[in-house]
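Reopening closed ticket. The problem is back. First fold of the pair:
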Amino acid sequence: MTGMIFDAPGSPRNARAVMAHRDPDADDVDFFPTAPWGARAGGEIIRLFDPTARTCWEPACGPGMMVHGLRDYFDIVHASDAYLYDGNVIHDFVGDAPSPYAADWIVTNPPFAPCEAFIRRAYAEARRGVAMLLRTGVLEGQGRHRLLYADCPLTAIAPFSERLPILRGRYDPETSSAAFYSWFIWVKPALRPQRFMARVGGVYRPAVVDIAPGARARLFRQSDLQFAVSGGVS
């Protein structure tokens, strides 16, 4: 697969002059980076549903851990974030600015507070599908029911059988975290998502795809350690 792609025609070139650089910070409540092996697990799930996908966009890329994992599954991985980390395009995904990229899939671990806005924007923008790494508890709540089952109908959920370590402010490959995470998958209507869903009571319901034990060992790469900082805060 080819390397990370950071710039695109029409991207906000002057943004670097007006927006602050953000360094990974253990006290930043919105910064929960993804272990690269968890991103690869998402890439495998996406390939099950859409084996011919070529491009993806990570719109909350941080320092690039998710992007690093996704490069194994896409020819082109676009990267943007509301803050400048290390060469990414600066773009507030849930803001009013036009999107700097068009991609087959939008794949991200969004900040928790605006995750519903991320889902709506991604579902509207992606050409073929959306994959979001979210706490499994996102399934709960009356307010999200319409979002997940009507406005942006969920195709599948893929829970991790082993804990995916997502820590505040850093990636530490030696530790774990208390929260349970799953990949949430939306296949766009043009790809006929009903092919993958179960029909129960005359209604199509999301499929469940397990991420079996052993994924962490199987999908870890030595190159992931370039992002590692020990002593993460769970």
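Second fold of the pair, where the issue appears:
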Amino acid sequence: MVLKDRIQLSHGAGGKLMDELIKDVIIRNISNRKVGGGVGLDEFDDGATIPYGGVQIAVSSDGHIVDPPFFPGGDIGKLAVCGAINDLAMIGARPIALTDTMVVEEGYPVEDLSRIVRSMSDTADHVGAAIVHGDFKVMPKGKLDKIVISTTGVGIVEAHPILDSGLRDGDVIIVTGPIGDHGIAIASLRSGLSFSTSVISDVAPLWDVMHVAISSGRVTAAKDPTRGGVAMALNEMAERSGVSIWVSEDDIPIRQEVVGACEMLGLDPLELTCEGRAVIGVGSENAEGVLEAIRKVPEGRGARIIGIVRGERPGYVIMETSAGGKRVINPPLGEPTPRIC
């Protein structure tokens, strides 16, 4: 697909268009893309690693522009900290520290800013990470919509980096809870939508989930299905690992309220953003043990095995439908709801 000469909203929506922009415009123009033998830009993963002495230091950056800043189940502060923590967790790193940059519109309520910062602190405390540095700027009224937060997380890889390219034939795919909650929670607040739901955002830090998974079995790959949802996460893992992923429609956990909202809006729940879920590949020899361990963690109580990895048809994600057929799950062009995270 040929890139246009102007940036479109779809270029930031987490799908194929964003991937193309990052690879063709951003990464191509950066010459030094990794440190030593660490994970860098070319791996196109959730984070990077820097070898230092006998350890691998992990780093990841995330920007957040969610609208509205406060939503059922969370706010932009919690979302921003979870974004950094979860990207570190997906590569097998224990979060230890974060920095943040806040850009706020002139006239923004001070009490709202205080609530957001307290939420950031509480979320970092949950995983034992410290917020150690930051920057703060104000834009003239009308030049920015409310607030933007960018976070960078620093962690320590506890065993070895877990990469999207690590899936192997026979591995089992686990999703750690019902999908699509965050996307529908935000969509229900947006102007012009004629429905409301009881669904709240799934936004949550995932280090505890990943820690027990790593401790309980052989984790081969992991990804948090943010922009582009589970559909994008599975496609990226299949493509980078050179395998196919076969999932069962009946095994994918989706709340009925999310299904109903998607039918009303013409959305695919597989493409909706999740902010507190992980898609994890594990060795088949102890998949049930890993699943049981994940379910003991509050953020993983709804975990289910949804599919398996095969060596045939590399790069494809195939769903066995409730009706008994099969269909290919294609990577979405982008997140259907803008400013979702």
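Update: turned out to be a display glitch only; the data is intact. Helices lie at 16-26, 76-90, 110-126, 181-187, 207-216, 229-241, 256-265, 287-295. Residues 110-126 form the longest helix (17 residues). Please close again.
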